[in-house]
Description:
Elements: H1 2-39, H2 45-80, H3 88-105, H4 129-151, H5 157-183, H6 193-233, H7 240-265
Helix pairs in contact: 1-6, 1-7, 2-3, 3-5, 3-6, 4-5, 4-6, 5-6, 6-7
Amino acid sequence: MGRLIAVVVFVALLVPGVLLARAWQLAANRRAVAGGAVELAEPTPEGLATLRRQAAHGRRWRLLGLVLGLAGIVASVVLFAEASVFLWIPVLSVGLLAGVLLAEVTRPRPRWALSSPPRRPRQTEQISAWLVWTMRLVVAAELATAGWLWSSGELGSTTAWAVVVVPLAAWLLAEGALLRALARPMPAEGADVPIDEALRTWTAHLVAAAASVTALLPFGTLLLRAGLDLGERVSTNFDVLPVAFVAGGFSALAAGLAVTVFLFSWLRPVRSSAPALAG
């Protein structure tokens, strides 16, 4: 009976990861609609200049993130020699994600005329509130799990600092970018409104995805480690808890990988070609 309960718990805890991946699939559709709206309007010269400036800004910061990741790999080789081979992918990923987050939180304000009186959209018009709150909950859960394992001596100080500082910094940058996107007034020219909405939608989804990835992947790894360690210490009569940790770890890792795929497929900037309805 205990084995059956363990299997049920394992399957049940995989469901949140599947639901999160589905939610990000719907977010991809939302981004596609926002990008398509840009093609249906003739932007002003200021709007076209804004698109070019924003695209160049994103490329610069993402290149800087790549450079930071490569520099981190070099530093890990110097510090840990052959053992650093296991750190290359995480370090490079952190650098790339840092470039994405820094690009969005430092976006220059568009130079078009602003609406008067200022009009601002609701955040739910840019991104699902469920995705934003899921990002926050995952970060909180990851920090709590890291703190628990650290206090119990299961994590070394260096690893603990890494799995605490990186998700926390990513979350703060994401919240800053979301706030900036929400507080910026809308443009005065109606033709630039689709561009403005697409830029806000791009920013909201990129930063929420980046912060989610930086929390989901270490969260899943920590849960797996806790579940495997706990499974070695408990008897067969109390095997539901380690199974729950392992299932939660697999769910978090699967969701994190799914969000990563969406994130890196979304790095293409907002573009405007000839309007789709032009003669």
